[in-house]
Amino acid sequence: MLIFPAIDIYGGKAVRLFKGDYARMTVYSEDPVAVAEAFAEAGATCVHVVDLEGARSGTTPNLELILRIRRESGLFTEVGGGIRTRETAARYIDNGIDRVILGTAAAREPALLRALTAEYGERIAAGVDLRDGYVAVNGWTERTGLTAAEFFRQLGEAGVNTAICTDISRDGAMRGANTSLYRELLTLPATAEYGIRLIASGGVSTIEDVRELTAAGLYGAIIGKAYYTGAIDLREALRLAAEPDSKTDAGSDPVLKKEAAT
């Protein structure tokens, strides 16, 4: 299983929200680039970046900072937050970002998602942000009537092969990962039919969470607040996720290709 340490950006700083609430924000670093470099020094090969301002506004206020993270850390970089048009996705990808994540646009504009996957392939991923069993959009501020099962089928039909699933109720709450939810998502007919790779996000707060998610067969797991508070040692998480019982299949995945080449 791959470990994606996370950097959430607001106002040029590395922050964390509590359950997606912008009014409950903690600043952890004034220098997100240095945070990414520390991930690399610990042995990470990839980083998950979210532009929280972009998630609310649909713009790219932190584009240059995110490009610096990619360039100066050398990490495979996936980015989410406010990517709702082809132009925005292209701006990231054409400037060297490895994978972009569509959340609101994936749910609301399936034609755009299909067009982007046709153009960029596996460099397009979808965010599956769940609140009370339904997909949430617009920076988690609005709940749709779309269930996870319905959304995963839409994603598969659009050609998406990587989904980042966040249990919003667990995000930043240090309550543990909702492993049962991820196991359920792995058994959805669309997941197997379309070969959708699942990245767990939200609530990964202990080494035991990492162990359970690895054993469950997830493609990846995002570690956020637990890293910043010291609850999870990144080196240990990386070691555990790489153990032989990990069921991650390299296939054509660019992250694993990069690891194999080093």
Task: Explain how this protein is built.
- An eight-stranded parallel beta barrel has the order 1-4-5-6-7-10-11-12, surrounded by nine helices.
- It has one domain (2-261): TIM Barrel (Alpha-Beta Barrel), CATH 3.20.20.
- The model has no long low-confidence stretch (mean pLDDT 88).
- The protein has helices spanning 32-42, 52-57, 63-73, 86-94, 104-108, 110-120, 148-158, 179-186, 189-194, 207-216, 225-229, 234-241, 254-261, and strands at 2-10, 13-18, 21-29, 46-51, 76-80, 99-102, 124-131, 134-137, 142-147, 162-167, 197-201, 220-223.
- It is of the alpha/beta class and 262 residues long.
- It starts with a strand and ends with a helix.
- The chain contains 13 helices and twelve strands.
- It is globular.
- Helix 1 runs parallel beside helix 3 (63-73) and helix 6 packs across helix 7 (148-158).
> Outline, from the CA principal axes?
globular
User: What kind of sheet is the major sheet?
Assistant: 8 strands, parallel, barrel
The CATH homology group name: Aldolase class I
The beta-strand count equals 12
Strand content: 25-35%
Secondary-structure-derived class: alpha/beta
Distance between the termini: 17 Å
What's the helix-strand series? EEEHEHHEHEHHEEEHEHHEHEHHH
CATH topology: TIM Barrel
So what's the CATH class? Alpha Beta
Taking strands numbered 1, 2, ... along the chain, how are they ordered across the largest sheet?
1-4-5-6-7-10-11-12
Q: Please give the CATH architecture.
A: Alpha-Beta Barrel
User: What is the typical, i.e. mean, pLDDT?
Assistant: 88
Number of helices: 13
The tally of domains stands at 1
Rg calculated over all Cα atoms: 16 Å
Helix % is 40-55%
- Spans where pLDDT lies below 50 across 5 or more residues: none
